[in-house]
């Protein structure tokens, strides 16, 4: 892990180590071992990165789309050439199983490949003129300096999902990565530099949210803020960005329902639920938080789900065959315990798991609860851990009302073999992403984002690049 293990800030194409602001200790969640100490950036470092991005903006945006695309594709290639080293780095600082980490590297790299093509498809419009001596045009131009704040659960995916379209559009970027996983961000910056990304176009400043994050949200040179994280933090950033009228993309919290109808393929429903609930130990914004199962299939589904959960190997993510690693920290463990305790107090039962694993630390047993009801915390709050509460329902109308009974609207899933229900139920769900007969929906070519309190804007697909563009109407007279 030596060549990509960077432990300094990356500003204006240089590795910078500020003094006097303390350091971020990066520890392996599986072992507690200290991996590295990364210096904290502060307001001065954020300002330096913003000014570097602003200085680099004219030349980068003036490059042809093809030239920018060539650099982005080279970045993609370098990520894939270093996939194993990046996966080991990711597993070491985040804890997820190595096989899952390899998948995340490939998924993140795919955004550079996708947007290398999309850079060449930023089209304008010719508008029919309202006068014979006029020609009217609508141009799409880069919005400017972009600030990005990314989470710890998928650093190798969330950073490319923001950086690739921003840079493809001709914008420059300052990134504040999560303090738990700065090494992944810094490794990506190193590979970007090797790919030929010019100095100042992509900058990385780890540090405290109150210093770096606040400066990014309020600085007048930053024209766009893109954030992935909790709804609570998203609300605060939205308020902070209001004074400078920044364009915002907010990918926020979720409370995803899974609905399993009596006519579902049982095997597919269990596999899909496992895929969405227990990926990254349940630490995803789109993972199942509420599992609604129709009465006729309920008992068979629970038995099959428990069997599948108990078959998942748990341990250090570096070990071969491991499917469940540790939670990110002890606060995540405490939240799982609180949700389970509340559910049990309100009448739920533990079908499997239910507490901390014998390995200690932040390892937690994958858990299935039965008898879940709407008055439990777990029905309304995002657990962000490997706890699967199962609710019983009778009718489709009941399931729809329960699924939509939340302020969130990021992802939802349902399983049925009724073709009419697929359209009827899918269109009635109040969510930005709906998986039908699958628990895995992510694809770089599709739009990702939520309704209601789950955020604003979209990432991925052709929609993703429009988030970083402004429209200019050009009226030419006197012709």
From TrEMBL:
Pfam families: Aldedh. Its EC number is 1.2.1.16, 1.2.1.20, 1.2.1.79. The active site is at 251. Signal peptide: none annotated. InterPro entries: Ald_DH/histidinol_DH, Ald_DH_C, Ald_DH_CS_CYS, Ald_DH_CS_GLU, Ald_DH_N, Aldehyde_DH_dom, Aldehyde_DH_Superfamily, Succ_semiAld_DH. PROSITE patterns: ALDEHYDE_DEHYDR_CYS (PS00070), ALDEHYDE_DEHYDR_GLU (PS00687). The keyword Oxidoreductase applies. GO terms for molecular function: glutarate-semialdehyde dehydrogenase (NADP+) activity; succinate-semialdehyde dehydrogenase (NAD+) activity; succinate-semialdehyde dehydrogenase (NADP+) activity. The keyword Oxidoreductase applies. Keywords: Oxidoreductase. Residues 15-473 form the Aldehyde dehydrogenase domain. GO terms for biological process: gamma-aminobutyric acid catabolic process. NCBIfam families: SSADH (TIGR01780). Belongs to the aldehyde dehydrogenase family. This is Succinate-semialdehyde dehydrogenase/glutarate-semialdehyde dehydrogenase. It comes from Polymorphobacter multimanifer.
